[in-house]
Specification:
The complex is a heterotrimer of chains A (about 400), B (about 325) and C (about 300). By secondary structure, chain A is of the alpha/beta class. Chain A has 15 helices and 15 strands. Chain C contains eleven helices and two strands, in the order H-H-H-H-E-E-H-H-H-H-H-H-H. The chains are: A alpha/beta (about 400), B mainly alpha (about 325), C mainly alpha (about 300).
Chain lengths: ~400, ~325, ~300
């Protein structure tokens, strides 16, 4: 029976929908007039990006344990999380839900740069709620699209690219090949790296480029072609799950022994852990956090507490999450009240202690200034995994674009 | 006669609900106004899909492509050019309909599953282009903060804009489906060979149905920008198409208003259940399975059939007396 | 800026071989999907989820057995069995009651199953990236036309045809295989001659899912095993099945070859848009042969 009639029950159905919403309205607990500071976290807890989202949350929670012992302005910091499943429209829905219904004092998240940019515009700027991006790496978040209500506690593609460029400009290589994931992140890192490299060492030459779809499992043919072109060095611009694939491919073809290779985040523990002792050695990488370096007491303590709580060492998202919590607490202390505008004013220029030393939230663009660590992968049999060795520290100021460049990008 | 009366009744009921929705933003909290607007947009998208799936019988597997094209066309015009806003708003649905026509021409020669598969391929091509063409579309970052004209830039004003436009579209859809064109489309769905035998140009009718449906999908895309102010490649992705398809099946794909209910359910579920657990897709899966077993014709469909059964029992009972 | 790579013999052969090994994985997974589609007439949207579970199960089994050679080979055999068991449970408890329903309802069921399995995978294995190592026998690479090619991928190129031949022998020579093929063409007839059609369907479904699990287990040493693998593979599998001819195993082979090789060569000749090559290939095939390349079972 496939007749179609408009029937009274279509309308009943719509009434049902309205009823559904009303139930949502009345039965779901209204946020009580809590005296605590409320943080809304939107992040990705499903799919391949989930490992980063969880790591950041764990770092955040660890810091909160300490902070809430003393409290901030006599209150505790509480948080609620929402899973965006790496979708931008869900991120927008969830962010608005947290701000409009949940009445949070600030937003934090997410790994998806598109979502971060969307939330930054549609929620943070529009509703005047501070938003701290903690893993997403698009330089546009605090660069071209930055504004008063958005901050970033993670490193971004401009910083990563600049580190790579600075690091490689000190090497004798002239002919380069650039390859990577064919999406915004990959291209942004490539552009930033090349720009900075060329500026410091004008004689370098780009002899070719290759791009593959993000998450592409078969990278061997690309490597073969690159090797055939005989570059002096290769820059790979990969992210997320492609990292494991590219490292496996480098190992399988023995590429690092034939030609110098640089990959941002090659030395990240989350990338090297699943490879175990099967990881390639001799790959250059930059990273903004290692749990084994620098060997400062603050870092050792952070790692020890993290391992005790979660059973494995922290990765860079945890490092960012930890810093974010401490920034939040310190900013509220400085502001003296739970007011969004005062919070922002207090956060600008704020310096706090972190596992890698003092870090600062730069006032002009709301980007955190952090050092970058350049190293080379090397197997560590005692740990059963590869680590970064021969580490050279690039100071934060060396790797950030200048305030002037940022203001120009924003058109101010 | 009986049908006319029924129509009056339900029209009255819809008008009542419409009134309620008009007053709603004045009483309910801001967030619910926003979610209702999201539901309206999604409902329009689902209804437009159902025009070709439920009423047309075509396997439209990548409807989101047209929705996305509508959104991107309008969004790009608003951001990249200085043309007046209404040009963008009109260009969106037209762009979607043109895309629908072109893709439809490719696919219409195929039957059933093949139609759907080819559409997925072509739609994915569009997605890949949007994903890759950073300079134009912002790539996978998307474009955000699209400027809206003053009169619809606020939360309440955008809500009313969406509500009124969706209501108008629904009325149009109803009229189209009731018209000779619409009835022919359903006849083609039920028995294409017979229709061809009586001289109806089956392919042309189906193609026109696709163009109309994709036009409305484009409208939904434009309304999406009004509510969210962003465009991004997810809007063109096949997963969204599958979700919209599920909304139609959930609500009852051979009733008129079923997809609205399906859309409302899924948006409400993922928003409200999502605040409690990250495993809301598991819950959605379980609900779907329960529905398949107990309400196989979708929620509306069940009501519809039950009511029909009761009505026919009553009629035969009264005749027996 | 220059793009693209120099087209040398080394590059060509390397790309061809990688395309082939990728195609073999696609074939194994798609043959299962095609088989289910042919016999049950339903596109199993959860097929990708079973592939993913196969990969994760292989990881767990090989890790539990301490990695190494034994770990890998046993995982390769046991992981698909685990997947088959999961599918059997789903089929006997829920799916089999729906066989009389509308096809769209069956599709909806498999979609629901995909959602559930996806979240269950997350609950059981968590969000970390996993990786397993190829067995020592298959590690390292051989040099083919002057370019390194992993031994494991060679192994895949050999396994693919073996599975194909095995499947073909099974469906054409064994009694149950023949019954399944008959049910694909005319289920009423099969029921009429006294065979329990429901059990035939169960068998077909479980076999199809076993193949998905096998594909997942085989692919795990070459990529990172993550959540989201289900979404990636399912769209490719569907497209391949469509261009190959519904329910036709050799069609699945042909489709997989086209897919794998166009993707590989696309990279070589036009890297900017290599991402669209397989889709373009599908468009071309369907335009020329609307019902797929080989005869469909329907």
């Amino acid at each position: 029976m496939k007749r179609k009639k408009i029937d009274i029950l279509s309308i009943a159905g719509i009434a049902l929908m309205v009823g559904f919403l009303t139930i949502g309205l009345t039965l779901l607990p209204v946020e009580a007039q809590a005296k605590n500071i409320k943080v809304g976290i939107i992040d990705c807890y499903s799919g391949p990006a989930a490992v980063y989202g969880e790591d950041a949350l764990n770092g955040f929670k660890l810091a909160l344990q300490e902070i809430n012992k003393k409290g901030v302005l006599g209150k505790k910091i509480e948080y609620s999380t929402r899973d965006t499943k790496f979708k931008v429209d869900l991120a927008l829905n969830m962010a608005k839900e947290l701000v409009l219904r949940g009445d949070v004092d600030l937003l934090v998240g997410t790994i998806n740069s598109g979502a971060a940019l969307a939330v930054s515009e549609a929620v943070a700027k529009k509703e005047k709620v501070p938003f701290i991006a903690w893993i997403s790496k698009s330089e546009n978040i605090t660069g071209k699209k930055g504004h008063r209500y958005v901050f970033s506690t993670g490193e971004n593609t401009a910083m990563a690219g600049k580190s790579g460029g600075v690091a490689l400009s000190q090497k004798p290589y002239i002919k380069y090949w650039i390859a990577g994931d064919d999406y915004e992140y990959g291209h942004a890192i490539a552009d930033a790296a090349w720009r900075n490299l060329k500026a410091r060492k004008p004689e370098v030459e780009l002899i070719g480029k290759s791009w593959w779809k993000p998450g592409e499992p078969d990278l061997i043919p690309y490597i073969t072609s690159i090797l055939a072109a005989k570059p002096d060095a290769v820059i790979f611009c990969t992210g997320g799950r492609s990292m494991t694939n590219i490292m496996k491919a480098i190992k399988a073809t023995g590429m690092a022994e034939k030609v110098p290779v640089y990959v941002h985040t090659a030395t990240d523990h989350a990338v090297l852990k699943p490879l175990g002792l099967d990881a390639p050695e001799g790959v250059m990488g930059t990273m903004d956090y290692h749990f084994y370096y620098p060997d400062l007491s603050a870092n050792r303590r952070f790692v020890k507490d993290f391992e005790a709580a979660y059973g494995h060492p922290p990765g860079f998202p945890a490092f960012h999450g930890y810093n974010t919590a401490n920034f939040i607490a310190a900013a509220y202390e400085k502001a003296g009240s739970v007011d969004k505008e005062k919070f922002i004013d207090a956060l600008e220029g704020l310096k706090i202690d972190s596992p890698v030393g003092k870090i600062e939230m730069r006032a002009c663009d709301h980007q955190v200034i952090m050092p970058m660590f350049l190293g080379v992968t090397k197997l560590s049999p005692e740990r059963g995994v590869a680590i970064s060795s021969d580490i050279y520290t690039l100071r934060g100021a060396e790797v950030m674009p200048s305030c002037k460049e940022i203001m120009e990008a924003r058109g101010q | 006669m009986f049908q006319d009366m029924l129509r009056q009744k339900s029209f009255g009921a819809s008008a009542a609900i419409f009134m309620a929705l008009l007053i709603a933003p004045l009483i309910i909290p801001k967030f619910y106004t926003y979610i209702l607007a999201v539901i309206f947009v999604t409902a329009l998208l689902a209804m437009s899909l159902n025009m070709v799936v439920g009423h047309g019988g075509l396997f439209q597997f990548h409807h989101a492509a047209f929705y996305g094209v509508g959104a991107y066309t309008a969004g790009l015009i608003l951001v990249k050019t200085s043309w007046p806003w209404w040009i963008g708003f009109i260009a969106g649905p037209i762009g979607a309909a043109v895309t629908g026509l072109v893709i439809g021409l490719f696919c219409i020669r195929l039957n059933k599953l093949y139609f759907g598969m080819l559409q997925i391929s072509l739609g994915s091509l569009i997605w890949a282009i949007a994903f890759r063409w950073y300079r134009l579309t912002g790539g996978d970052d998307g474009i955000h903060g699209i400027p809206m004209p003053e009169f619809i830039s606020g939360l309440k004003s955008s809500y009313y804009f969406v509500l009124i436009l969706v209501a108008v579209c629904l009325i149009l859809m109803y009229l189209i489906l009731k018209s000779p064109f619409g009835t022919t489309l359903q006849a083609i769905r039920d028995n294409p060979e017979r229709c061809a035998a009586v001289g109806i140009n089956v392919r042309r009718h189906q193609l026109m149905g696709i163009v109309v449906a994709t036009f409305f999908a484009g409208v939904a895309g434009v309304l999406f920008i009004t509510v969210e102010g962003s465009i991004f490649p997810d809007l063109l992705f096949w997963v969204l198409s599958l979700e919209v398809f599920i909304m139609c099946l959930l609500g009852g794909w051979f009733t008129f208003g079923g997809p609205i209910l399906g859309a409302a359910m899924i948006v409400s579920l993922r928003t409200f259940v999502g605040t409690y657990t990250e495993y809301w897709t598991l819950i959605l899966g379980v609900i779907l399975i329960l529905l398949i077993f107990f309400l196989p014709d979708g929620i509306m469909g069940y009501n519809y059939l039950a009511k029909l059964r009761r009505r026919s029992k009553r009629r035969s009972a009264s005749r027996a007396e | 800026m220059e793009t693209g790579q120099s087209i040398t013999l080394a590059a060509l052969s390397s790309h061809l071989l990688v395309g082939l090994s990728r195609a073999m994985i696609l074939f194994i997974v798609t043959s299962g999907l095609s088989f289910v589609l042919g016999v049950l007439r339903v596109p199993n949207v959860a097929h990708g989820s079973l592939y993913m579970i196969g990969a994760f199960a292989a990881f767990s089994i090989s890790t539990a057995l301490g990695g190494g050679a034994w770990g890998f080979w046993l995982a390769l055999i046991l992981a698909p069995c685990v997947v088959a068991l999961v599918s059997l449970i789903a089929e006997r408890s829920l799916f089999c009651h729906l066989y009389e329903r509308e096809h769209l309802m069956l599709l909806l069921f498999t979609f629901a199953l995909m959602l559930i399995l996806g979240d269950l995978t997350k609950m059981i294995w968590g969000a970390d990236y996993r990786s397993i190592m190829a067995p020592p026998l298959l590690q390292g690479s051989v040099s083919i036309f002057d370019s390194p090619f992993p031994k494991y991928n060679l192994f895949l190129i050999i396994v693919g045809p073996i599975v194909a031949i095995g499947l073909w022998l099974f469906t054409s020579k064994t009694k149950i295989g023949k019954i399944a093929r008959a049910a694909a063409v005319d289920r009423e007839m099969v029921g009429a001659i006294g065979i329990n059609v429901s059990w035939v369907f169960a068998f077909a479904f479980v076999l199809g899912c076993f193949l998905a699990g096998l594909g997942g287990a085989l692919v795990s040493p070459t990529i990172s095993v993550t959540l989201g693998m289900d979404h990636d593979i399912i769209i490719e599998a569907f497209l391949i099945v469509t261009i190959g001819g519904l329910g036709n195993m050799w069609g699945a082979m042909a489709g997989s070859l086209i897919f794998g090789i166009t993707q590989s060569f696309g990279v070589l000749f036009w890297p900017q848009f290599a991402i669209v090559f397989p889709y373009a290939a599908v468009v071309i095939v369907l335009t020329l042969k609307p019902t797929g390349m080989l005869k469909s079972v329907w």
